Amino acid sequence: MKFFKWNKVLVMLGIMAGLVIVSSLTIRWPINTFPAIEGKILDVTTGEPIENVVVSVNWIRSSPGPAGEITRTIKGDIAVTDKKGEYRIPRLWSFHLFSVFSRGYMGFYHPLYASKQAVVARERRRIIIGSPALKAYPEESEYKDGIIHYDISLLTLEEKYIKAVQKLKLIVDSEEKKKKTWKLSGDLSGKFQAYDNGYYWRVLKTQGISFDLNEVFKVWDKLAALFPKESPVNRFLSKCKSRIRENIKD
């Protein structure tokens, strides 16, 4: 009798294990696995690889709440591109009983390039990487051998803002030109401010990567010089540089 009881227990456990496996493979619950992500980051204009781009990923889970969907971060990962411009985010494995895997948010950051964000998600059986407007602007990514391959290109701040300022010079109306100049100057200030908390630089330090702040600041000064001295970017830049130096002190 005991043999038959244990036999039934083993059969039930086998059925439960089978259900968990099927459920995990179809709806990613209660076990979710997400492939590793790797790729190369290149300069839009030159096609050359970009070194020291910080690639961050936040994996998100969602669960029902009284006011709608509640999202929480399962895990965050960081990678830094090497001299070949290559990066790799490791495979994600997560277990969750009262929530489901939702999506991942990727960010690509370098102080001399325009940042980029992307969303990683499953659409039916496909894995899609794209802009936050995911369904409207899906981007190509290759899934092979358990790895998502995702290459991107970034535009330098110099090229972006020099071209933008050249366009401003074509505006005849002085009031419209001033308004657009101040808006563009404020946008550039935001690019600098994204690095004044020291996060980017501390990531490089923890990876044992050396950097030259003065070389970065030279480019920033060159860009700020495109705008009038009283513009927001010129008022902000010196404070931004001081905060960076303060925030990355040992």
Walk me through the topology.
Elements: H1 2-26, E1 31-34, E2 36-43, E3 54-65, E4 68-80, E5 86-89, E6 92-95, E7 100-109, E8 116-123, E9 126-130, E10 138-139, E11 142-144, E12 147-149, E13 152-154, H2 157-168, H3 174-193, H4 199-206, H5 213-224, H6 232-247
Parallel strand pairs: 2-12, 2-13
Antiparallel strand pairs: 1-6, 2-5, 3-4, 3-7, 7-8, 8-9, 9-10, 11-12
The CATH class of the largest domain is identified as Mainly Beta
How many E-type strands?
Answer: 13
- Multimeric state of these chains? single chain
Query: What structural category arises from helix and sheet content?
Result: alpha+beta
Percent in helix: 25-40%
Unreliably modeled segments: none
Strand order of the largest sheet: 4-3-7-8-9-10
The gross shape turns out to be elongated
- Percent of residues in beta strands: 25-35%
What is the CATH fold-level name of the largest domain? Answer: Immunoglobulin-like
- Major beta sheet, specifics? 6 strands, antiparallel
Q: What's the order of the H and E elements?
A: HEEEEEEEEEEEEEHHHHH
What is the CATH homology-level superfamily of the largest domain?
Immunoglobulins
